[in-house]
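=== Discrete structure encoding ===
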Amino acid sequence: MAHIKSRKHAPVLTLNPATAALAVLAMPMAAFAQAAAAPAASASAPAAAATPAAAPAAPATLPAVRVKAAPVQNNYKADTSSSPKFTQPLVNTTQTITIIKKEILAEQGATTLSEALGNTPGITFQMGENGNTQTGDSVFMRGFDTQGSIFVDGIRDLGTISRDVFNVEQIEVVKGPAGADIGRGSPTGYINLNSKTANLDDASSGSVTVGSGHKRRLTADVNRSLPSLGDGTAIRLNVMKQDNGVTGRDHVSNEGFGFAPSLAFGLNSPTRVIMNYLHVEQSGIPDGGIPAIGISGFNNNALTPNAAAVDRSNFYGSLSDYNRVRADMFTTKFEHDLKPGVTLRNTSRLGRTEQRYVLTGINSTVVTTTPPGGVAGVPANPANWLVARSRQGKNQENLVLTNQTNLTADFETAGLKHSSTSGIEFIHEKQNNVTLGAQTGTTTAPANLYRPNPGDSFAPVVPTGAWAKGATTTVAAYVFDTLKITEAIQINGGVRWEKYKTEYNAVTLTSGVANPALNLSKSDNLLTWKLGALYKPAPNGSIYAAYGTSQKPPGSDSFALSTSGINTPNLDPSEATNIELGTKWELFDNRLALTAAVYRAQTKNDTIEPASATLIEQAQVGKKTVQGLELGAAGMITKEWQVNLGLGLMDTEINATNSGNAVQQGQSLAWSPKLSFTSWTTYRLPFGLTVGGGARFVKSQVRNSNPATAVAVGVPEVPSYWVFDALAAYEVSKNVSLQFNMKNLADKFYVQSLNSGGSRYTLGAPRTSTLTANVKF
């Protein structure tokens, strides 16, 4: 018997939600609609043939399906630098560049540049010298002082201040001589802070943090598109307010306030204008340091061999000490796409930083060897030992005015692809110093070594009548080009020419009487360059070799010239060369970046301080060599597991033959650990909990390249240390999360920085904990 099939109604197409979602992800909407309609049409066709009079079946109606997959955010890996001088992705850049993104800083609770730089190896900090104490980012990188090579959005940022990161998108640490990138500067690289700017994403976020050391901090970041003011218009505002003590230190404090508005026009058009303003205020009681007595290796012939260390919370200053900073920076950036692949940029900035402080520093320990009723030659009771103190002051203003024009272009000649960038820069940098000192006729009483009293008598700090003004004006031009010979072989190179002039005017005092005004100047032309070759054995990897140079003329960092010593105008610039061999790879669908590089940097014409002022002409015969290995990893191993790792091996040596200070021959550079390691990792569990932590190791660092001086008195080196940190964060909802951080889990005592004399140190942060509430919309 034949079966009867009814064709009265067209079959109804049904899709379950999972199938619909997969279909949407796999096909464009038009293709999806066509695929959905096709079965209905094919099913109704036979019915139309058999019964011509039948009405056509109504098309099947499907409910709208919306699929919104949350993107997996890679918090640690960056693909490009913010600088237009780097035209290639980082994996194809022939230089070691470490990028520290804002997300990792938020996870770690890092608020300053110094804290952020703990995420890359080879960086240490120095406390100060000649009785002075540093109050800012006193960075040493790969053996050389890099404090004068800190940039914000590619423009040098002046001032010995501590930089907050509340308005920082990412921190770019560029290692190796980079004179072609930045002009005069450190022979081992520079640090660039990339600022947050307005964009077209509507987003709001904020955080409130409380913790050890009376820490209280509030930040907020609000970004809005403003189509009513024109297509592509947006505004952004970042704010910060904090009121902190310092864990483990009595009386030391750090208050801060900052806001950074950004306004952008034409963001989705060929012509874009972005205006940024940054205002920061800082105040508090600065830390003059802790006597180094009792630290391993401490030596002072006047003290008993096993003198006890002081309480690490002791404060040796006055409650009237202060550190006040005000920074203002206005930046305008104009961008115009002349045609596809060709963009013209112009950036202008006016910046001013003012720092005023009065600080009490500590000096040598004073021991009375014959106490009343005591025996000559027998040390006095340590309870009566004293430590000498000095009052220091700074009144400094830094100004920068610059205009930079840059052109990037992708083009092809003779079948070869080029990615070029070129530009010109006009920069005027100026520094004004008013000398402060203890008021004539007043003294500061020494402190009891073990029981200092902030209520002791302190000499007032007033202007002495001495002053100094320095300025450097620079005109520069540069060009870089990456030549793609094949898809696997690239050659890149660049050159920078600049003409600078430094002018220095000062009045000094001798026994309170003003000396004749000092007027010195230095001008010269600098030419620096770099060259690299890169081979790509696979699309996700590269092997490269690179060579670069840099120069640093007298007075580069301080704008100060002198009639003797290492900043005399008759000296030539110190010159540095760097050769680097490395490889970079992106694994796990480009989620994880691995880097490895060996390098050798050498300075010549180096300004080693001579043994006496009569040997000025012999000061520029020194050479310094830094060579090592650096390994890095940043990104995601899985969608839940992120890592950031860095390992640095470094060997340094001084060649001081015939320098007048030959005792340094063969010695290591100060503040240069042979081994440093940093790590941070997090893992996201399925129920909204993220756990993580990190470890940092820094091997011992000598404080003085003169071995006899280093062991005569004080601590000869900064001891090695390990520090471990931890994180636990929980998403209460899609808008709210809680974050708990603990730093220095083992409460390890360590020295973060030491002064050149080895008599005082800055305490590494003891165990601290913070709780942060984060909101986002």
In short: DSSP finds six helices and 38 strands in the chain. The two ends are 68 Å apart (CA to CA).
